[in-house]
Records
---
Amino acid sequence: MTKSKSTKKEKISVANEIDRIEEQRLHCQNNLERAEFRHRREQLSDEDRQILEDEMTIMNERIHTYEKELEVLRGENRKNMMLSVALLAISALFYYAFIY
């Protein structure tokens, strides 16, 4: 069963993975904004304020992690694009050199 999960995960394209992580980051960003708004507007006890600040810290860490993952995936996507362009250029070169 773990083989099918890893195989399934390998079949996900880089662009789909970027979209998925961007959605997760956006959802976390929205939650952080709501928590910050609640922190500013509501009168909270010290314990509730500390809990809310801890949640905000965790959300900030998650957003930072998502941004790092996105940076890595975008770099990988860029490499894939450059490889595709290089293969296209080589194919066109061979076509014009030998067939045309």
---
Amino acid sequence: MGSITPALPSFNVLHNTKPNDTTLPAFMVSSTRGFLPRQEPIVSLPSDFAVLESILTRMPIKTLSGEAGLLATYTLGETVLRELPDLTDAINKYKDDLPLMNALYRDYSFLASAYLLEPCHERFMKGEGYGLGRQTLPSIIALPISRCAELAGFKPFMEYAGSYALFNYRLADPALGLEYSNLRLIRAFEHGLDPTSSEAGFVLVHVDMVRNSGPLVDGVVSALAACEKDDREAFDEGMKKIVESMVKVNKVMDGMWQKSKPGDYTSFRTFIFGITSQSMFPHGVIYEGVSETPLSFRGESGANDSMIPLLDNTLQISMPSTPLTSILQDFRSYRPGNHRDFLAHIASLSNALGLRAYSFQKQSSAAWYLLALNQVRDFRWRHWCFTREYILKKTAHPTATGGSPIVTWLPNQLDAVMSAMVATATEWKDKGGLGQDCEDIMEAVIVQRETLRKEVEKYCAERGVVSK
């Protein structure tokens, strides 16, 4: 008797996102909304949280009414201690409503970050260094954020998807959907409630990018299913869908230059720093009533987005064994649980099927594989350019908001994808090549790789850090 090949594991990617089902987590991967939440984010909290809502409404440097808010007068901390009760019992009252738990997690994470980093903002506005943030998070914030984070599946600190970006937009007109001009922020630190501000642009461009992730998810799932069935035509079609969706994502990403100005970023950036590896919190933060031992969490970072990690896993991009890659792996825990499970599933499935090797078996597939790698490179190169123009040229602070080394971390991943591209082109060099488009891409990659090397050396030398 022949052996029976065990079935490969499956994953439930939603096609119907069930937006009215409050028993499901807010974030579940779908072929329609991709990595966006299943439903539009909850904007208003129940009346039980009226005090919290009031403080958050008054908190931004510029409020929705145009008046100066609590962070403008450096009075948020004292206002929180004077007005805010412990609302943990109210959270427990609604604990089975998981999208509401996500909204509460978003709101408490905004409040926690603003409270901890308000002194740093005040010093920054005076032209001083950041100094120390508040080293203790009072129980009136620490207890409720810990509870709603636990229920929603996050760490008790601000994260990219669950709070700062992907669950922090509303539609000005629900009938117009996710068009960029129809997006508004729910919460903000600085001027973000004005949709024309750089803070709003910074967040909403990310939402607009992820809006295109449904076809990306569908392309990945389709390509892997075709690989398993050895359906070459369907495989190439799936890879084509991956490339086309990423072309749209990268085009939207390029709009960041116009919608969020480089000179404005450092002023609202203060509030999205984390605790881990930051000089503002050298010993961590005491969460009063939660832990007597200081806690430490990474800050909000676009590196927590799931689109590029999805492609890293699908395309089997090999990362170097370095401390910088260890940070990349640590970032994986700062995503919605369903996203984490999906990315792990795709990594396992792609490795089991050998997607990269399958791509190399035919020229058409290898070309699509290289084009997909090129979209990852394009994304990471632009991210590096943002880092250079928005941060490296504006501030000497050595770490990014997520706690990674500001000069060397992104180049670590960017060089890895460039290496994968070189290996792919080399593999096919003596087999007739992959066509003129791919040859043109590789010529540009060789030049860009050398440019990256020189830029990293320059900034490392200026800042006195080791480039590797």
